[in-house]
Specification:
The complex is a heterodimer of chains A (276) and B (194). By secondary structure, chain A is mainly α. Chain A contains six helices and four strands, in the order ααααααββββ. Helices cover 50% and strands 5% of the residues of chain A. In chain B, α2 runs antiparallel to α5 and α5 runs antiparallel to α6. Chain B starts with 11 loop residues before the first helix and ends in an 18-residue tail after the last helix. In chain B, 48% of the residues are buried. Classes of the chains: A mainly alpha (276), B mainly alpha (194).
Chain lengths: 276, 194
């Protein structure tokens, strides 16, 4: 076989004049694209099928918005409890407690609704749409996948929800303008804190009184769920709250949720319709 | 002292609206650092927290049960943390003391009887929680509000724990509700050395 190079395959040679001409063309095309094309996106690159990000609304945030948001969280929690109660699987002591919790969250919501009207807003009568989409529906699906574990998972869910309500009202209470508003949300935060502690004590007894880790680091139980404590940390935390729904089939895997207090993408703005 | 809405079908409410643009406007922004009025209230709150820590110290010395002693020691330490944080944001030295509260509760904290101690501790924690809740309403500054808000929820939890230890665990009303009144820290009575 010959090792001679065929004339047609010889690499093109580019002299300095060609390089200058090509460089000019390149710059011209770049300028044309810059002038006529869409501006480059500043969004981070996305890989896979992750849900699209929620755009930040441009609506103003006033006292009424914060109160409507707090209301929506309370009603969402009450609705989750109702969903669990509808399954009729809870032992009487847990059913009694969960019915009481529904009442307490609805009472808190009623106070917040009245304050919303006093603040010049329209009372919010619904659950939180963002939470329902992103958290409640997947949570209910996860709970229903393991009916034999429903009471166990529902109790852990209740602790997480009470911790969420505590953190949310704690967070919002300091931002409100009027003392009466701050007092109401602070009172609601303390109520949810008592709710959480009561559930944990009924669940774990004195073993669950306080987190032995002084930093409040999350602990896990033998089933792989979060080990709850009546007093989980020395100060009220606003960090995401971990909730693990344990599957009854060990090969089915567990569902891990991170509950977070509402932010700008899940506020109940005054511009939102109050039709649920 | 101690005196429905449906879940289904609401998900589209936000999605149907065009939302984009600049950051939202905000509610009025309070001052960050404590005002002079805040500092007066913080001094009284500091006294309450240090007094609570001392009361738990009494319990640790007088209770035989190791588990309850550890519990009392932990809760006492939490109150020391609160005092340190209050001193930190206010610039006050941590040497305040509430003689009125101490005099009223010291006999029960030092009795050595677990149930009596726990009942008194539940009363103390519920009152402290109610007081910090009231302070969140009264404080002008965000730093003081934020600190009191993070303290009051834990004191509410500690009250619940102590209620259970006092033998009220099966009484849902006792566990879930509180009728504790806040201390009026703005009106410092004689004997409250703040």
């Amino acid at each position: 076989m010959s090792d001679r190079t065929q004339p047609g395959s010889q690499p093109a040679r580019i002299d300095r004049r060609d390089a200058l001409r090509l460089g000019g063309v390149t710059v011209s095309i770049a300028a044309l694209l810059a002038a006529c094309g869409e501006p480059a996106s500043t969004d981070p690159g996305r890989v896979g099928v992750a849900p699209s990000e929620t755009q930040l609304p441009s609506y103003p945030v006033d006292d009424a918005v914060l109160l409507r948001t707090a209301t929506s969280v309370e009603l969402t929690i009450a609705e989750i409890y109702r969903t669990v109660l509808d399954r009729n699987v809870l032992e009487p002591q847990w059913e009694e407690l969960m019915i009481r919790l529904v009442e307490l969250h609805e009472e808190a919501a009623a106070v917040m609704q009245a304050l919303t009207v006093e603040a010049g807003g329209e009372a919010w009568p619904c659950t939180n749409p963002w939470m329902v989409d992103r958290f409640v529906e997947p949570l209910v699906e996860a709970l229903e996948r393991s009916p034999e574990m429903l009471q166990f998972n529902a109790i852990n869910t209740a602790v997480a929800l009470e911790n969420l309500s505590t953190a949310n009202n704690q967070s919002l209470s300091v931002r409100l303008t009027e003392p009466a508003q701050r007092l109401a949300l602070g009172t609601a935060a303390a109520q949810s804190a008592r709710n959480s502690a009561t559930i944990v004590i009924r669940q774990r007894g004195s073993e669950g009184y306080f987190n032995p880790d002084p930093t409040g680091e999350t602990q896990y139980d033998d089933a792989g769920a979060v080990a709850n404590f009546a007093v989980p940390s020395p100060f009220g935390s606003l960090a995401p709250i971990e909730l693990i729904i344990v599957a009854e089939d060990v090969e089915g895997g567990s569902d891990d949720f991170a509950l977070q207090v509402p932010a700008e993408n899940s506020y109940i703005y005054n511009e939102l319709d109050t039709s649920c | 002292m101690m005196g429905s809405a449906g879940v289904a079908g609401v998900g589209s409410v936000l999605l149907g609206r065009g939302v984009a643009g600049a950051a939202p406007a905000s509610v009025d922004v309070p001052p960050s650092a404590p005002t002079p009025e805040d500092t007066d209230l913080l001094a009284a709150a500091l006294g309450l927290e240090l007094t609570a820590a001392q009361l738990y110290g009494l319990a640790v010395e007088s209770i035989d049960d190791e588990f309850v002693r550890d519990l009392a020691a932990n809760f006492g330490t939490y109150h020391e943390f609160y005092a340190e944080e209050i001193a930190g944001i206010s610039g006050l030295s941590a040497n305040y003391f509430d003689e009125v509260v101490y005099a009223e509760l010291a006999p029960s904290f030092g009795t050595g009887d677990v149930e009596e101690f726990a009942a008194a501790a539940a009363q103390l924690e519920a009152t402290a929680s109610a007081t910090h809740t009231q302070l969140v309403a009264e404080f002008a500054s965000s730093s003081a509000r934020t600190l009191s808000a993070s303290i009051q929820v834990i004191e509410a939890r500690m009250a619940t724990v102590m209620n259970d230890l006092a033998g009220n665990g099966d009484d849902l009303d006792a566990m879930l509700t509180s009728d504790a009144e806040p201390l009026d820290l703005a009106a410092v009575p004689e004997g409250r050395d703040v």
